[in-house]
């Protein structure tokens, strides 16, 4: 869970502080962390009441029947494909940094498309815990190197930090959406609960996860912003001198690749199981089964590549993903699930009234992040497209 949460999202957080200021940025990181902890607990309660569900498609089926299963399942697949796109985009940034933009960025996108597709061909994903350790160690090491190097050679004075800035509303809200993405691991938590030997133990794992990621997000955002200054890059690994930048991006490559492949695997497996459920091809290694798996892999990565080339700015893509999907998976739907569990007893006593208010706030938060976030990310993408960061461009996309 820690490796699944602490991935690309942490790289956008220092730029959030540089956009909205110390006060608003740090309050958002802590506040959304607390809300996401509680919403994860609600998901666990819902899963314990309905032990047959194993993913968000199952939640949709409980809430809305077969139509809900299909709608939630489609949203789950689309969300994962967008996350794959974020890894592909980050891969192109890394390659531009490591090679000093040796070739057209679209070419690096095609190279990434081939690499990610080949690595996603295996139909089983054994040793996921081992891969997760490598992924987390990779991103943590890259962030630590960035912080230490900036501490040794600061690019900004301590008094350059500002409690508040005054960006445009769309720009500020798009930055806040990047924090939402950093806490957007809920989409996989139902599956994790289902695979525990004792699902009742999940709250312990949840508390450990949220303690670790809130602490790391707070420290990384604050330290990198303090020493990189208002012009900190997003992703934050590009905020150092060229040599350190290359070292950090080289160390971060395992996270970029491994986490992207895991997203692809769960996406393709979900689609494959839905297509071949209750057929002889489900566990087959024949031509139809293998060919379908290959087609799903190549097709999903091709769509992810198109998305990455169409939204070529890292913070814009994360903001769009958060507004459209993470707003509901992490906040809105858990609030709805609580009311589904407690309908008819929402006002019985002070405790239930307080919980009703809290979960209504979750639903309201999901609505605000979704609708306002879509406007903000669209506005920001329009601004970036009119500059040097347009879609389908050969231009260097490292900041």
CATH architecture annotation: Up-down Bundle
Q: Using the coordinates shown, work out and report the CATH topology.
A: Amino acid/polyamine transporter I
Kindly report how far apart the N and C termini lie. Answer: 30 Å
Largest sheet: none
Radius of gyration: 21 Å
Fraction of helical residues: over 70%
Which CATH class? Mainly Alpha
What keyword list fits this structure?
74% helix; mainly alpha; 399 residues; Amino acid/polyamine transporter I
In short:
The chain has 14 helices and no strands.
What does this structure look like?
The protein has 399 residues and is mostly helical. 74% of the residues lie in helices and 0% in strands. The chain has one domain (2-385): Up-down Bundle (Amino acid/polyamine transporter I), CATH 1.20.1740.10. It has 14 helices and no strands.
Break the fold down into its secondary structure elements and pairings.
Blueprint: H1 2-5, H2 13-20, H3 22-49, H4 56-64, H5 66-98, H6 105-119, H7 128-152, H8 169-182, H9 186-195, H10 202-228, H11 242-276, H12 287-310, H13 314-342, H14 350-385
Helix pairs in contact: 2-3, 2-8, 2-10, 3-9, 3-10, 3-13, 4-5, 5-6, 5-11, 5-12, 5-13, 6-12, 7-10, 7-11, 8-13, 8-14, 11-12, 13-14
């Amino acid at each position: 869970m820690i490796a699944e949460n602490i991935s690309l999202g942490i790289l956008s957080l220092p730029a959030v502080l540089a956009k909205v200021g110390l006060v608003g940025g740090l309050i958002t990181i802590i506040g959304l962390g607390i809300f996401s902890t509680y919403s994860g607990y609600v998901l666990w309660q819902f899963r314990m009441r309905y032990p047959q569900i194993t993913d968000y498609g199952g939640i949709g089926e409980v809430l809305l029947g077969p139509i809900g299963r299909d709608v939630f399942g489609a949203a789950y697949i689309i969300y994962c494909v967008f996350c794959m796109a974020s890894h592909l985009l980050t891969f192109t940034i890394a390659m531009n940094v490591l090679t000093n933009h040796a070739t057209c960025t679209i070419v690096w996108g095609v190279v990434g498309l081939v690499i990610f597709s080949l690595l996603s061909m295996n139909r089983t994903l054994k040793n996921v815990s081992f891969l997760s350790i490598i992924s987390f160690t990779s991103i943590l090491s890259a962030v630590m190197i960035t912080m230490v190097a900036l501490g040794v050679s600061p690019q900004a004075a301590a008094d350059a930090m500002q409690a508040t800035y005054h960006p445009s509303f769309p720009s500020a809200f798009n930055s806040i959406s990047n924090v939402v993405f950093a806490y957007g691991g809920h989409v996989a938590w139902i599956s994790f609960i289902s695979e525990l030997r004792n699902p009742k133990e999940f709250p312990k794992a949840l508390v450990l996860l949220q303690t670790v990621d809130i602490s790391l997000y707070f420290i990384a955002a604050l330290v990198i912003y303090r020493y990189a200054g208002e012009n900190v890059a997003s992703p934050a690994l590009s905020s150092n001198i060229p040599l350190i930048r290359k070292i950090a991006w080289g160390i971060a490559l395992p996270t970029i690749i491994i986490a992207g492949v895991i997203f692809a695997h769960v996406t393709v497996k979900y689609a494959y199981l839905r297509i071949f459920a209750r057929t002889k091809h489900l566990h087959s290694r024949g031509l139809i089964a293998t060919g379908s798996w290959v087609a799903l892999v190549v097709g999903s990565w091709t769509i992810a590549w198109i998305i990455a080339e169409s939204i070529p700015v890292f913070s814009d893509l994360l903001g769009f993903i958060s507004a459209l999907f993470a707003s509901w998976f992490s906040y809105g739907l858990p609030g709805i699930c609580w009311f589904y569990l407690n309908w008819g007893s929402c006002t019985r006593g002070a405790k239930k009234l307080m919980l009703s208010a809290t979960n209504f706030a979750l639903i309201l938060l999901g609505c605000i992040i979704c609708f306002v976030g879509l406007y903000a990310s669209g506005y920001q993408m329009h601004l970036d497209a009119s500059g040097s960061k347009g879609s389908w461009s050969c231009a260097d996309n490292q900041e």
